[in-house]
Amino acid sequence: MAEDGYPSVNLMDSHATCPPVPPRLSQGQQCARVGQKALFILVSVALCGMIVEACLIHRLYQTECKSAHIQIIVGFFCFFTFYVLFSQLAYPPMVIAFTSACACSQTKNKQAQLRGKLFLFSLQVTSASISKIITEQEAATAAKLRSCVISPFKPLAHLTDGQDVVHAKDIMAWSTDADPPLYKIDYKDRSLVIQKEGYYYVYSKVSFSDTGIFHHRVDLRIEKFTGKSINLLKSRKYSNHFKHPEQSNSYLGGVFHFSKGDAIFVKVSNTSKIVRQDLSENVFGAYMI
Fold it and tell me: pLDDT (tens digit, 9 = 90+) per residue, 256-289?
């Protein structure tokens, strides 16, 4: 009742409209938003892992003494990164919404297969990263070891026999496939060619099997005397078994003075009698003293 004695009257406009209500997101839009957030987080973690791995690999080439530790750190970090991704896809709390959103279009069996494939992929990528790092480190170490080899300060050469060489009838050939040490001495036409004048120790060892007399010698060929050779060292072996071949060996060695362009070679009575079971059985070399 109002103060003037009249009852209070409340007026209501029946034609007024209700205030607008914010539109509700559909279930599909909610799934899409949750999926985008989860995907953004996973991609961010993966990119951070790749950046850190690249930094560690860069430091691997900068510091040698810590290479092994860096390899282990990189491997474990890669595994940890993919393990986090696997855990986020496999377990709650945050990605429960993501898995529930995926459940709208996938069954639980497909989700389990997806998690299993992701886990196997993480293991493969981790092992591949570690293998690549170890391979690169081994190659770098081998290159450094080759660079650390002390080069000789005097001419030298050491040749061995091999299955790749073809002997002449009485002159032996030598293999170059094993990258033999040749320093300021060339190998050409089954001969060692001297490049620097001086005194050299020359040696030769051959293994043979023969029933008669076997000759082993080291000869010198000089450019001034074309077509002729000078005998430097010589041995002659006699076999007591005339019916069955007897295996033996012969070694020659001596010091001689050579000029530039002189060529020395090994000559035997018959190269078909040479025993070629081991590379170390037949050698030929020279070095300056």
Answer: 999 999 999 999 999 999 998 888 899 999 999 9
Query: For position 94, what pLDDT does the model report?
Result: 46
Q: At a CB cut-off of 8 Å and minimum separation 6, what does 267 contact?
A: 170, 171, 172, 215, 216, 217, 218, 219
* Helix-helix angle 27-62:108-148, to 10 degrees: 10
Count how many Cα atoms sit within 13 Å of the Cα of residue 221 in the half-sphere of its side chain: 15
d(CA 267, CA 6): 146
pTM confidence score: 0.50
Query: 75 to each of 52, 84, 129, 133, how far by Cα in Å?
Result: 12, 14, 7, 9
Tell me how far apart the alpha carbons of residues 121 and 125 are, in angstroms, rounded to a whole number. Answer: 6
| Sequence-ordered list of residues with C-beta below 8 angstroms from that of 209, at least 6 positions apart, any chain | 245, 246, 247, 248, 273, 275
Q: Are 261 and 205 in contact (CB under 8 A)?
A: no
166-206 tens-digit pLDDT: 899 999 999 988 778 899 999 999 999 999 999 999 999 99
